[in-house]
From TrEMBL:
Keywords: Signal. Residues 1-21 form the signal peptide. InterPro entries: Flavonoid_dioxygenase-like, RmlC-like_jellyroll, RmlC_Cupin_sf. The lineage of its organism: Eukaryota, Fungi, Dikarya, Ascomycota, Pezizomycotina. PANTHER family: LIGAND BINDING DOMAIN PROTEIN, PUTATIVE (AFU_ORTHOLOGUE AFUA_6G14370)-RELATED (PTHR43346), QUERCETIN 2,3-DIOXYGENASE-RELATED (PTHR43346:SF1). This is Uu.00g143010.m01.CDS01.
Amino acid sequence: MFSSPALITALALATAASAFAVNANPLYVEEAPDHLRPYVIQHYKNSHAVTIDTQLYRFMVTGPSSENAFTLLATNAPGSGSLGVLPHIHRRHYENFFNYKGRFQLWVQKDNGEQQARVLSPGDYGAVVPNTTHTFQITDPDTELLGVIVPGGFEDLFYALGTNFTSGTDTPYVPSKSNGSSSAGPDPGMIASLQEFDVYAQLNFTERRDLVNGSAPSSATWHSSTNALGEVGEPYFVANGYGPKYLNSLHGYQIVQPLVTPKQAQSLEYSMSTISINAAKPNVTVPTYTLEGAAAFEVLEGLLTVQIGDYEEATLSSGDVAFIPPAVPFKYWSDIAFTKVLFIGAGTNSIDTQLIAGGKSWDYVTFPTQ
């Protein structure tokens, strides 16, 4: 069958337009775009950074860049002798705390229930569901706290409170010494006025300090045995490697450790997991995904290669973030033995949910030997 000259011209114009769009919008960016599009941000790029006291906040996924699917931010700071923010609740937002490196303490209390506290080390996770009083404290000198907040747009709070920051060296945070007693965040009078950002101060909250082996109450399970995902509407914690695990071997080995499933997310409809990926085998075809919701990868360990839409392949190392809009085809793989990523997906059937559905329950954080 022969193509008409008009059809050939139309196809040529479409191809040229697609190439122009890619060339005009490079995949690698310095900060999250102000509209929905694929992009990659490397670790420690300025990324709309602001400072609040000794804490430095970067925003790798924002409300505008994800059409309010979620916000992904990183907090880098030295250890402090006081809370990182005054205790408060969010009525509409689900806040997820994930430890990238260092240590920090997290306190949560839902309604009149018992206050829970944990010391989070790398890979540990804490879920702060709406209407949960919470606060945190950074304890190690080189700590990076990753926050995933659903829905997106919560970064506006930090823009209102913080001071714009740029660095010619991409330093993790400003190299100034903490006096050990400073408290980041607004004073009590100011935080009470921030209800327009869904922040409601809980100034009568007193954080418990009776932690034993990194947890309180003493009956809590933490770095000792299996941690279950939380009941709907309740805060919970998952220690690194101690939560549920699933092995998917359809296209090479992947181990999914869910942190939030659509069950916990309920009407907010998102999921969040770590995914450990074995090196791609020469005889295995890497699948292409097209999702109904936005998605993001942040590399925790190893090297991840992604190919998004018409863009060329990009290889991400630790701390780098790739964002994929809805309905944009993409694929991902690793060329080294072990890569681990933090994955966030909007909707009820994102990649981690699909991998779990197509896999089996697994007791280990490593791959089979064959």
